[in-house]
């Protein structure tokens, strides 16, 4: 049957075989490969045929392979061996080969079977397994494996023995089931860490048989295969004896620490070689914050600044003598005073300390106070609780005349009070003092020499630590002067209260101490309102002239009374003129203690004085006007009269038919006409004068008035070829008397025409400098002949003053301009240059519905 | 006799001139309406050409009588050698009469209108 199989049948076998069937030539080139190549190597038979096997062979086998093939050809090889090919996916494929050389075909015939890892390693494992098993089972340490699910897969004898269980009882149970709950949670935590790939070490308490607990040092690590954690291995070493000992020490140490920490003093323990062995919580809080670092360190190395210091000496002393030391010192490191007690022993030095900074400071304060007390001007008395004097300062001796020795053991009130002493003030508060409350009172005492002394007394009780009243400290201040001043003030007030004048008493700093009823009547301020304030703040207004007092102050400070008049303000805002008389009051040392002001209302007087002054001014003006009038009469009125007289005389002396006679008649007429003109002028002037203070103002349009004046002068203006430029706002108005305003512009224009320059046509410019809030400023300029301002300056606006020889001006125009302007509250200024022209600046105030007062 | 009349009032000059003529006081009368012109003339004149008398008005424009007198002060020595100055004014102001004391150049004070006895006084030999 077997022989009967045909080629096709063989080929079918080959095709279905999972093993490789192949032939290759002497050069190693595949000639034939069956279909199994696709499964085993990942390459199709077509790919492999025609290519060298060495391309697919794992490189380390190339040399071996070549030698095998050579041996096979020579018949020295069995034809069975293992090697590895590389699968198309890169994986190494171990193959078990059976190979034969066929001389006739000049080919190698080969079958290859894939062999797995397990198969490959079975032999090795079998060999080493026994060793491991022994190591595992007989290890004195606990060893066990767990599955990723946390079940024990294997446990060694030691673990079973510890638990008192058989291996089968342990396997397939979670390790945690053998543990107490807190240990279970610890174990669970480390188990998970192992599953994450981490190795951990920790202490674990395990229940041993018989209820004993043993501590194991556990190492747990992951078991890896193909980069995957496939389980956890645990090894545990018994550390129970060591652990227990340590725990005992720790417990004791904790107990001690608790004790030391609960001590309110700072405490630390130094070994005999100066190392810190212990530092309690308080000590750490106070000055040794880095407690954990200091333990085990040498104190003098940790605090080199203290070497040879107080601590250093005292601690060394303690060790050397074996006796405790107790000292107070300043510790610069903590900016504090400390009280230290150190007890030496065989173990070392026990140091207790506390912060006594506050105590020391309080003590220092007390020392300083007593130093001050012995030097102060105030009297200081220290008595015991029975009020018997223990100590007095020099101030006390100065005040009372009694020395320290004289008063020791005596009660102050018994020798300082006298029959005149008003003891009420003291009696009122005495019970408080005896109860231990601080008190203060003012009292009249007697000095040793019998003289009175007024004292302000403060008594402060002093308590000891137990709250028991121990001492009284009494401070006395001499207030005799103040009391005297006060009494004097009372006397003064008594006097002043009777007068109807205002009286004000101020202290040396000008603070009001007292005012009388007259003052209240005068100003409206009551004593309560006035007290403590300065008269200047209370009574002065912006109108009050403070310089008057300043100018007299020196005299006052010299001790002379001063008097002056001043405009003050009443409480209701009314102004009041006051005649002041100020007197300074001095003490026996010549120092000013207070000022007394007597104030008299002189408003009525002052007002009549002011009226008088106005009247005087009016009179002066009238007089001045009168003088001017006299001048007019003596010169201008008299001139034509003199001429007329002369002409009349000439007429009597000359022949009626002569030329002189006729001329005389003509001149007579001329003189009389002139007289008439002057009389008219006088009339005009007097009418303005009369109306002064009673000018009716109305809103006048300036431009309109100028145009009216221009219209009246149209003819002379045209004759002189003149132009007038008015550069004013159409509605520029001013409060004025229209007739006066007309006269002003008429005169100015007429002057401009009259005194124009022959060299050029006249140009007049009128412009405004804005309608100011307060009034209107106009400029009126011409290009006329001008005049010498330097020469004329005092007379320009005077009546009958002329500055041009050639023209027939009367010298009244500018006088009228000025008079009219002044009547309306305005004024005029002039500027002129000979040959260039003249400019007038005219100012008119914007007075509404108001009459002008001069 | 040579006389200057300085006055801005033509009527006044007319009268003074004719009265002087009537009194036969001076055939040589020069009149000035402006004090400055008179001043220039006087400054330019040699001593023999100076007038024997000057009638000076006080109230004049530009340069009044007082200013004229002050302007004349520098040549006062020359003037006094051969010339007397008389104030001729319509002023009745007493202060004007008092004021002539400050002006030694002034020889007399005459109120307008000038009278015959005033002229006699002027033309009479040195007072």
TrEMBL record, chain A:
Organism from which the protein derives: Adhaeribacter aerolatus
Key words of the record: Kinase, Phosphoprotein, Transferase
Catalyzed chemical reaction(s): ATP + protein L-histidine = ADP + protein N-phospho-L-histidine
All copies of domain PAC, residue ranges: 439-491, 560-614
A molecular-function term among this protein's GO annotations: phosphorelay sensor kinase activity
Domain of life (superkingdom): Bacteria
Leader sequence residues: none
Entry EC no(s): 2.7.13.3
Domain PAS: 6-76, 128-198, 252-322, 365-417, 488-533
A Pfam entry, by short name: PAS_9
Protein name, per record: histidine kinase
Coiled-coil regions listed in the entry: none
Domain Histidine kinase: 632-848
UniProtKB/TrEMBL annotation, chain B:
InterPro entries: CheY-like_superfamily, Sig_transdc_resp-reg_receiver, TCS_response_regulator
Modified sites of kind 4-aspartylphosphate: 57
UniProt cross-references to PROSITE patterns, sorted A to Z: RESPONSE_REGULATORY
Biological processes annotated in GO: phosphorelay signal transduction system
Keyword Phosphoprotein: yes
SUPFAM superfamilies noted in UniProt: CheY-like (SSF52172)
Residue intervals of the Response regulatory domain: 2-127
Pfam families: Response_reg
Keywords, sorted A to Z: Phosphoprotein
Protein's name according to its UniProt entry: Response regulator
